[in-house]
Design goal:
This protein is mainly α and about 80 residues long. The chain has one domain. It contains 5 helices and no strands. α3 crosses α5. About 20% of the residues are buried.
Length: about 80
């Protein structure tokens, strides 16, 4: 199962909805920040998931880079 599919399942939606619906996208990015076992997925899979959600190319050299890049999404949206 891909990382985005896992998140979509968590939110009872589709991967397409995660990409297109702004609120779901921000929740998904926050979910990724707090994801406990980041090493379960490769850095390439993380880059693909984050890039797909943000609509840009992403590249990570470490899991710390993944966490650092997602930190802004850890702040709750009101």
């Amino acid at each position: 199962m891909t990382l985005l599919r896992e998140i979509a399942k968590e939110y009872h939606t589709t991967v397409s909805n995660l990409r297109m619906q702004r609120d779901l996208k921000w929740k998904a990015l926050g979910y990724l920040y707090f994801y406990a076992d980041k090493e379960t997925y490769t850095l390439k899979e993380w880059a693909q998931a984050v890039g797909d959600l943000l609509g840009c190319e992403a590249h990570f050299d470490s899991y710390q880079q993944v966490e650092d890049s997602l930190k802004p999404f850890s702040i709750p949206i009101r």
